[in-house]
Each structure stands twice: as structure tokens, then as C-alpha cells.
Amino acid sequence: MITYLAKRLIMMVPLLLGITLISFVVIRLAPGEPVEAMTAMSPKITAETRQRLREFYGLDKPLHVQYATWLKQVATLDFGRSFAPDNRPVTDKIKERIPVTISLNVIALILEFGLAIPIGIFAATHRDTLYDKGITIFVFLGFAVPTFWLALLLMYFFGVKLGWLPISGLHSLGSETLSPMAWFVDLAKHLILPVSVATFGSLAGLSRYMRSTMLEVIRQDYITTARAKGLTERAVIYRHALRNALLPVITLLGFSLPGLIGGSVIFETIFAIPGMGQLFYQGVMGRDYPLVMGILVIGAFLTLVGNLLADLCYAMADPRIRHGRG
Amino acid sequence: MTARLFCCLAALVTLVSCSGGTPPAELPRRGAGAPAYGDALVVGTIGEPSNLIPLLASDSASHDVAGNVFNGLVKYDKNLELVGDLAESWQVSPDGLTITFRLRKGVKWHDGTEFTSRDALYTYRVTIDPKTPTAYAEDFKQVKSAEAPDRYTFRVTYGKPFAPALASWGAGILPAHLLEGKDITKSPLSRHPVGTGPYRFKEWIAGQKVVLEAFPDYFEGRPYIDRFVYRIIPDTSTMYLELKAGGLDMMGLTPVQYARQTDTPDFLARFNKFRYPASAYTYLGYNLRNPLFADRRVRQAIACAINKDEIVHGVLLGLGQVAHGPFKPGTWPYNPSVRDFGYDPARAKALLAEAGWHAVGPDGILTKDGKPFSFTIFTNQGNDQRLKTAQIIQRRLAKVGIEVKIRVLEWASLLTNFIDKRNFDALIMGWTIPQDPDIFDVWHSSKTGPKELNFIGFKNAEVDRLIEEGRSTFDQEKRRRCYWRIQEILAQEQPYTFLFVPDALPVVNARFRGIEPAPAGIMHNIIRWYVPKEEQVH
Known about the structure:
The complex is a heterodimer. Chain A is an all-alpha fold. Chain A has 14 helices and no strands. Chain A has a domain at 97-317: MetI-like fold, CATH 1.10.3720.10. In chain B, strands 13, 14, 15, 18, 19, 20 and 21 form a seven-stranded mixed β-sheet that branches. In chain B, strands 1-10-9-8 form a four-stranded mixed β-sheet, covered by helices on one side. In chain B, strands 4-5-7-6 form a four-stranded antiparallel β-sheet. Chain B is globular, with a radius of gyration of 25 Å. Chain A: Keywords: Cell membrane, Membrane, Transmembrane, Transmembrane helix, Transport. Chain A: One of its GO terms (biological process) is transmembrane transport.
């Protein structure tokens, strides 16, 4: 197991390097430069000023030199300074945004799994009943309805019409003067709509997945054996079938890891939530290379770690994998 | 034409005022109430400010916030006339080369230090410093020498008379005592600014809000409204819902929101709507290097074939006006007697025929020397008004036998691959109209080089001469004559077909009183806005 882990970890280094190289080249293939985004169509800019700005950001150097400089910096875990006019360290900007995105995604993830698993099991055990069909329609609605439309609808209904929930942001004005308990309630109220929308969107896929793995397991011989032994249906499903049906679903959790810090642009924009999705979007639009690269590297690293964790789960469940047999 | 436009606007205003059974909300309907200190003004901003040192930022969100924290030496008043701000008065030497500013005494920075000429001198020096990454150095580079002979006098000398120079001193003056000798790009002031303005910085929560509070020692008096909160809401639909739910006090509406969605008695009771021409125009610009547009008659014909009123009504729902030139209607450089070409398809056809485009092919498209009259209008993605304008133009030009294709491109791609390379037929784009009418960068023939703003390649010796003359004198009457003549030439030459000037459509919660709509908009007297004690909510 240790050799397997070590091998996988060593493999990650060239992979990560490859990803950064490709990202570095690809982002620079997009038309426009950070300096363009800042100065285009401004009558106050002369070619000389533009050149001065390019030198300030080191954009006048050849691409391979820029990459080498960047790589050297990253080796010391320094992602450099943002090209946006605030010129702040990229790490600071990411640090500011990441707690919001992680907390929101963790809550949504818990809700998704917490709801999708029972929905999936129930749909599988009550296959082709009216309930199963109803759930199918419901979850596919979640698939089909555009996030922004659902979000605006809920905001209008609960925020404007009924006035029960805040529409956007994370805190009410003046929330800093509230008691810790009231502050927490205020935050929770702000999270209800975004978390519901986020959860509803991904409920469909996950619950259908749970349903199909459950159905597959139920058809196995050992379930028939268990039933033949005279176990109650409850015991058959929850003690014998569920554990096996859950394995692939739990592996999905591993894959959700990079998603936790990714954030969603549409969703964060609509709810005015200052998360990573928004930051990344701003970075791309402003051609803020250091910021985009910083986020991509963290994302790539987490994807690799997520994959590794998922594989480790498999390996633990199935000895054939860790011994390299298949 | 004017009469027709006026009738259309009048009809629309009547229409707006009739629906919903309430009068148009141009003036507050509640009683005045007694001015009182307190409350907060919560405004929505689409983008997060990037840097609150105005010199280093080029985005409007940063400048909106910094505008309340910093003062310039001069500013534009409510009638868009230059008046003193941190400077009490100024004197231009008879040869037009030297400007001497007399600074106000007793003005305090937000940290209590007194403002002096040292600050103005520092701001000038740091702006022209090659190490400062700023977009605002150009005007200051014209300065030959700057000096601060005493604490309250600041003098600048130019190599030649330069009219836009005066307005350039409206740039935010920075505190020398906090910045001198330090690297401005790494200064904490970019996130915690210290200025002399009516509001001082309180807090900035990244991605959420920026809060300013009233500065009690402000030299024009303490503002009535205690706090100014900028909430960052990147989506306009969300912003509008927040406004309706009471989470925002002020925002700019879209024409649809203004004309169709806010005319309920409930909304009009809670908000005051304002409307005035924005400082911007939208145009159809031709690539004059393209032989298709080389003949002036062809450009005039296209202008005749376009129904600008239709665009104003279709795209802006009437909330705007037809543009005839590059200046803002109602301001001194705008020549009200200049009208370019009214909608006249018959004249368009005649002009095209004169230019040699007669033969009509089987598809109804005009041809000349066997080539059909077909071109592409480029515009940027994400601007629905421009796309709709292009579609209306496409339909109108088809009626006179011109085929138009439309290409919508992402901003950076349009700029780099097409505009910079001069690889386009025609464009629908817009310019903001600066307060000073100097149009050198967009219209002078020396500005047709790569990445420069005269990208259509307009060259006219008379316009060049007038632009140079206009910027080299401080005499407004002389300048007016130059710009009026320029407008006449542009209206005839049609290097652009000027399309429309949209209206700014701000809406403010009705609890705010003291708002005085003026040519400069509504924000000019922000420190005199107030909420009567009994209506304060924050």
C-alpha cells in the first residue's frame, strides 16, 4: 500500500507541472493582455504608457522566461501579485474568498448527499411506483431548470413578495453590531436560498446514480440469499445492500473535492456571494495571469489529490487494485 | 426633426405618466421634512473597486468610491462649469502657459493633518513618475515645471497653452505626508484611503461592501447622510430585486425597468425616478480605408437610410435622444443647429446612384462593377442595445439595397483581432463624452496609428486645425466656435453615423430629500442630501 501511495505521489509532480505549462500557454493564447483590459479605448493612454505598464508586469519578456520566473516563485509557494490595479498578493485574494466557497459547498454537499441517498434508495426499493415516477420528474426538473432562472424566481417570491428571506450577499447591513447568535441566524438566513438552489441543481444526478447502483446491488445473488434466509426487507436493504451500493457513491465524494474550492460563476454572481467562481471569472476577464494561474494550480492540485483519495478508497475496498492485478 | 423628436419624447412622457395613474416621478412627492443628520445611503455597484487610490485605478467602481473620499484642485459644478474644489481660485497667465492655484486654507485630511501645496506637488510628481503604473499621466506630462512657492500656492507651467490642462487638475489629490518616499503600488492606502473628501473610509469587506462615513470636518460642511455603503452586486436583475426588497436605496435602471417595470403606484410611492441625458453616445463607425466607404455620398446615404428615431424607440424605449455629433446635447460645445441626415430612404437611393451603385442584382442588392454592396457590422458581446441597433440598421439598409451582416465578438477578441488590425468594415460602439470637449485622441489625423483611437482612419485637415486651435486656448468663446464648426464638418462627412445619446435613469429611495437634478446629474450635491429624522431607517 505504501509503495502504491509513493508511486502515485511521485507521478503527481510531472502531471502538475504539465498542467501548469498547458494552462500558462493557453491563457496567453486568449486575445488581449492584462494591459489591454486596463487601458483599451482610453484616450489617456499612449503607446509609451502601455509599454511602461507591460514592463511593470514583466510582460515584455519572452514567454519561457515569464514561465520560468513564475515557476520559481510558485516553488516557494508564492503565487505572485495580481495584475489587477490592486496589485495584491494572489494568495491574499484567494484566502479571502476560499472560506466562503468551501463552507457553502460543504453545506450544499452534505445536503446533496443527505437527500440524494435516501431519495435514491427509496426510488430503487419502490421501483416503478407512482412515488418513483414522481421523484424522477422532480429530480429531472432540477436538471432542466436553469440555475439563474430558479434563483431569480425564488428571490422574487421569498425576498420581494413575502419578504421572508434576504435576497443576496452574506450579511445584513449592520450585522456587525448583532450578538453572536443573532449574527449566525442572519448568516443562516442569507444562505438558505443559495444553498437550496445549489443543492436542487445537483440532486438529480446524484439521486439517479444512487438509485441505479442500489438496483444493481439488489439484483445480486447474495441479496436473494439474504432474502431466502428470511431476513426482513429492512435488514436486507439497509444492512446488506446499502453498504455495497454506497461504495461507488462515496467515491464520488472524493471527486467532489476540487469542486469544493471551484465555486460557480453564475450562482455566485446572482446571489452576490464573493466566492472563488467570481474571483476566477474576474481574473479571466481582466487577463489577470497570476491570479488565474494561482487558482488553476490549486484546482489542479486538489483534483489530483481527489483522484488519489478516490483511488485509495477503491484500493482499500478491493485488494486487487493495490497489488496491481486486475 | 427636432420637433418630431420632441413630439415623440413628449408623447412617451405622457404615455408613461398615464399608465398606472400616477404622475412621472421627476420630483419628490413627499413633503420636504427638516434636514437631519443620520441614516445611510446604500447603493449597488456591479463591479468591486480595484484600488481606492484614484491614480492607480481605471475602473468606474473605484472612481465612484474614491470620488467621495478625495478632492481635486478643481471640479465640475452642477451646470458642468469648472469651479474651485481644493483650490479656492486660479489664474491663467495672459500667454496661457502658467496656471497659479490659490489653495483653500484649513482643509483637513481625514487623519487631521492640514492639506497644503506639498500634496498637490506630490500628486503631480507621483503621477508622472515612470514607476507609477497609471493611465492618467498624459495630461500632466504636458507640464514643463511645477512648483509650490508657499503652503497655499501651487503653480504649473506648460510648454504651450493647453486647454484640457485645467480640467486635468480635477484628479484626486493624494496625501504627501502618508505616501512620499514610499512605493505607491504597495501602499496600504489603496485599501484604506485617506483623503480630504466629504466621506472617509471605514471598511471594505472583499466582494461584499465598501463603507464610508461622513467626515465631520469636511471643508464644505459635514454631510447629512452619515454613511455611504457600496454593496457589490454583480448581477443587475439581483440588484433590481434588492432595490424592490429594500436592500438598496439607489441604482441606475435599464430602459425596460424604467418604462415598464417601475410604474406601479407602490414603486412610485417608495422611489423617485430621475432621467437626464447620459454623457455617452453610440455610433456606427466606418473603416474609411475600405474602398466601400471611401465615397462621402455612400456614408451619407447610409445615414439617410437609418431611422434614428426608430432606434431610440426600439432600443431605448424612447429614453434617449438622437445624436448628431460627438458632444453632449445641451452643453456649450454642442451645436444645436447642426442636424446630420434625417430618415430619407429615397435620398439614400439617389445618393447611392450618384456614387455609382445602380444595378440591382436578382436578390435586390445594389452592385457596382459587378460587386454587391455588402458589409459586416462588428459589435461587442454583452451589449444588447448595440446588437438590437445593428439588427434595426440591417433591416433598414436592406430596404435600400445594402446587405449587412452582423458579427458579435468578445471584447478582447474584437479589439485585438479586428479593431487593432483595422480589419473591419463598420462598427457599432460607444464613447463616453468627457466634460472637456477636446476630441484630439479620437478625431485628429495623427491618432490613426496602431492601437490609437482614430481607428476608422478619419483625416481632415480642417478638423485637425480646429482641434489644435480648440485645445490651445482657454477662451471658451473661441473654443466654442472651433467645436461648432467641427460638428458641422462631421455631420456632412459622416465618418461615424452618430446614433443616440441614452438617458441616465437613476432611482433613489423617496426618503432621501435635497436631491437637485441638474445637467451634471443628481450626485453633485450629495452632501446636502438628507433623510428627515422620522423617516431614518439605519
